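Why show two proteins at once? Because comparison is the fastest way to build intuition. When a single record is shown, students tend to memorize it. When two are placed side by side, the eye starts asking what differs. So, the first record is below.
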Amino acid sequence: MKRSFGVLVGLVVAYVLLVNPLAIPLTVHAQDGDGEEEPPYTGIVVTTQDYSSLRAGPGTQFERLAVIDPAVDMPAIGRSADMGWVQVWYEGETGWIASWLLVWYGDIISLPVDGVSPAPFVRRAGVVGYTTRETPIYIRQLAPDDQVGVLPADTQVEVTGRLGGTQGFYQLQIYYQGQIYWVGSWNIRITEGREVRLLDTSYLYAYGRLIRQLDRDISRSVRTLESIEDRWLRLQAGESVSCTFIPEYATRSSSDSDLLQEPGFAPLVTALDNGIMATNAAISAFEDACARAAEGDTFLSLNDVDRALADIDTARRNLNIARSLLAPYRDRDPVLGTRD
């Protein structure tokens, strides 16, 4: 769908503001140039996962410009400070889409905060902090070659992203005087907002992706284990159990290609896979019992129950091992480096 913006001539209102996740539209809109334009090249592409509203600004209170079909690829050219909205180039015009409707390829946190030539809006910082000492600032990673300056102590900055969790040593992305930089979290005192809500860019690295994926895999597997355990414990107690809902088999989503790059995760993955295999054995036994019940055989032997509960014990032991190994791996993330 091709649209062109009308030109609204009005009063330009200037604010010296920090970022607010709830943007408020003004009556003055950015003017589009005549004719076709090319989107600014960022190397970052987003894909819609569902029907997605394209809006004039980063919020649902802005005008809806279009509804985009699922599975449409578009260049990403900007973002909101809290990564709740992504600015895209769609059929010759710019607009904003809620980030939860998108998947993306590339370092999306490197996109310009507030986007490219956006419609004016009022915003106030979601996460604000102050430097606690003279603070080195880096253009990319906390490495000597990337250092571009030093901020004085007690400088106010806006925090717009992070690399790593929010415990121990991790890195923060800051927005200062219109530019994005990286600093050590130990140099920033957060005074407003919570940095845990900001996008964690560890997904860009195999080690960081594995930490996130394995954490989710372990949590999902534990929930599946608890679900099937409840059914077998009720059968052991002589209760009637419905076969209407059978838990789905547990799976591991962590990438084998990432594991090849980071072979040190092998002990954790072995424990997780063993836990998943034992959990699925208990699910399979319950599924078989339900199939027999559907054919009129509604009785289970004590041996059937004991075998399933033994599988459940094996699963729990292995999942507990996997969970206990995750924290040390997280603490040794090589991307985060060491404190300055």
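Second record. Ask yourself what differs from the first in the token line.
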Amino acid sequence: MVRKYGKPVRKTRGEGEILFAELPKSPLKRSGPTTKPEAQPQPVSVEELGKCLMEIVIADSEAETESDEEPRASERKGAKLGSDTPVQDEPTVQPISPPPSDPPQATPSDGPEEEYQTNEFSEIEESLRILTWDDVCPPGDTIQKIAEASYAEVYRITNDRGTSIIKVIRLHSPIKPQTKAQEKSGLVDEEPHSEESLAGELQISEWLADVPGFVIYKERYVVQGKAPKALLETHQVFHRRMKRQDPDRLQFYPSPSRYLDETKFLVVELGDAGTALEDFALDDVDQVWDIFLHAAIALARAEELVQFEHRDLHEGNLCIRRARPPKPHPTNKEDHNNNPCKFGFSGLEITILDYGLSRASDPFSSPASSEEVIYSDLESDLSIFTSTHALQCTTYRQMRSYLLRGTSRGGRKDPLLDPATHQTPHDLDITTLKPISWRDYHPYTNVLWLSYIYHFLTEHFVKYWSYPSAGSGLGGSKTAAAAEKKAREESITRFKQETKEMWTHLDPMASRKILSFSCAVDVVRFAVEAGWVRQEQLLEDCGGDGEGRSMLSFVDDSFATDYGQESSGEEDESSRLRRSPRRKTSRSGE
């Protein structure tokens, strides 16, 4: 069955339950204790109080006129004296104005900071369940560390009831110091984070909850205490693998062997996303088609709904799972030639993970000028642009080069900025002469990451293949392996030939004369025009009258107009203006 996608309708706040409405508020700093000046005594009769009380009232009035500015200091000092008649002490204390550096005045400013830190955990504990690691992964369950994302470690837990993904964020809490061996090796711990570090990612997850291709949120809770043996073992396996891939890497999440009884984590449980692309064994070219097109469609849908940019869509943040058996292609040669569709044959689906660096706009906010925008200010740490340890680092620099130059390509006139040039935070955009802002919407970053995924798929399909695929019947002989490798090379060569025109508009290093895709929607539009994705694959029945609605706004009357199909009416001005820049955008920004 071909997967169908929802229509781009924005829900109102009243529709459905907001999943993350229970997010605890950030602890507010409390001001120091304040003491109000004594209120004026109410009129009383002489018979009730007598002459003594009348004198005290006169003394109070004098004290207030002499030093209205220091009621708090007077009250504290009076309390320290411990007099049986404190009001009689005030005339002697009031004329003595304490200096500005008086210790009692400094006490309130120190107190709230400590109170803010110590109250962080109690705020979380009041709103979330507190579990142990044995509760999360009891004996008999399987836990596997699969990734290290922004702010978090990612594990897969499997048991008889199913599979879940958990993101583990270490909160500010005690942990054992590094061992001497760790210190000697120069290892650096990833810093702990507050719950607020993940609040934006959770909000984006909520906004995209109904979009196929994005992760499903289940629950969150606090986990406290020492780690079980299984957690330590999977951490060590992952650590060794990362060191083999990047021997120079020094910064890692702390080993679970260092967890104490007081060590605390915020854990977010998500639906099973499958296997990371970097670990997924590609069996045939249909999988290459589906993975790329699924990713493009998911990003396009998110662009339309919340002006989404992922900004970190490498092979570790794109997961693959088999949703259904593969579907055969038409066997009749004539039918095959008349049906250029490439989408939906592998039975695979994708899930996009980790929105730690992502950007999205609140789909419910109005007007647009005051909309809530969730984003990560990448200017706060430029190391992501200066690092060269992995292939994806080039794409980070391409993003920032695009913001600075209006282009991300190589060439003599507009070079891809090398790592050494990414040193000045909030540098100026040469086209506007204003500091670059990651809050702004730059959907071309999604095109850059689709280019990265395309390159990874075509390279990974052959380069990282060494044995015949399971169930191929070719055995393990060198001759059989060589035969399948040759078949793979021929398949991926045909794929590149069929996608050659698309790649010219997708390639960030192409000539300046070639128009580029400006967003993921452009990529999907091209795929539909080429016949790789059928229009009905992007539609779903919206019920009632059975009228189909597109998951993307361009697959309606405007779609019919663009691609030579009948249209019931003229294209409105807003649609024409919305689409025209996509046709005419050049990498040069001219």
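One difference worth noting in the second protein: The longest strand covers residues 162-170.
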